[in-house]
Write a structure and sequence with these properties.
Blueprint lengths: L2 E5 L4 E5 L6 E9 L7 E6 L5 E6 L8 E9 L3 E8 L7 E6 L1
Antiparallel strand pairs: 1-8, 2-7, 3-6, 3-8, 4-5, 4-7
Amino acid sequence: MPTIHLNNLNNIFELHGNTGRRSLELEKVVLMTGAVPGLQLQVLDEKNLSMYTHDLQPDTSSSEIYINRKFVFYDHLTVQIVSTTPGTVFEAEVYYQ
């Protein structure tokens, strides 16, 4: 399963569509720095309109947040982790297919 490492300095990845890929299935996000208040996973469409937002608040026993969502796109899709508090330091791995 592919993963992408995101952090507060590099918080965006973009997936471009081609004949072999027109969808993205987000499985989970693992917070490497532990729970950080105010983190959100956002999925944006080709026009940078929000398609999906999920608060990244794990339960106390695990740093994994399961998303289990599939997104269909044509040109590209943007996935980003943002903080509602400026200057927040975080590291996360996004698992997708």
